[in-house]
Structure formats: C-alpha cells, structure tokens
C-alpha cells in the first residue's frame, strides 16, 4: 500500500511537503505514512483516494483497478 501512495505522488511530481499541506499534516507524518511507520487514518486514506482519483481499495492493494468506484 505504501509504495502505491508514494508512486501516485511521484507520478504527479509532488513533494511530500505538498501532500502534507493538502492533508493538513506535517511532512514528517506524511513521510511516516509512505514508509508504513504508522497506520494511515481512514479519513486520510479517503482524502488520498479522492486526491488521486482512485479508490481506497486500490490504495490498500485490494484491487489493481485505479479507477474510482462510481458515485451513487
């Protein structure tokens, strides 16, 4: 899971600091998320999925389909 989050960030040429600002956390906390040093809170996981236009299942390695689920 953590590698996917990092890859998605790097695909958009964003820094950890930029992602941390979006998530309203410190760069250090965000770095801990990417390394897997701390569990990612559900609310943050949802924000990451929304930001990257994917599903939480993709972030959690439960599927290889990047597309988000349809709303409704």
From TrEMBL:
HTH cro/C1-type domain boundaries: 5-59
Keyword annotations from UniProtKB, A to Z:
DNA-binding
Q: Name one GO molecular function term.
A: DNA binding
Recorded hits in SUPFAM superfamilies, A to Z, give: lambda repressor-like DNA-binding domains
What's the superkingdom here?
Answer: Bacteria
Q: Which Pfam families match?
A: HTH_3 (PF01381)
Query: Does DNA-binding appear among the keywords?
Result: yes
Q: Which InterPro entries match?
A: Cro/C1-type_HTH, Lambda_DNA-bd_dom_sf
Q: What is this protein called?
A: Helix-turn-helix domain-containing protein
**Provenance organism:** Paenibacillus monticola
Q: What is the lineage of its organism?
A: Bacteria, Bacillati, Bacillota, Bacilli, Bacillales
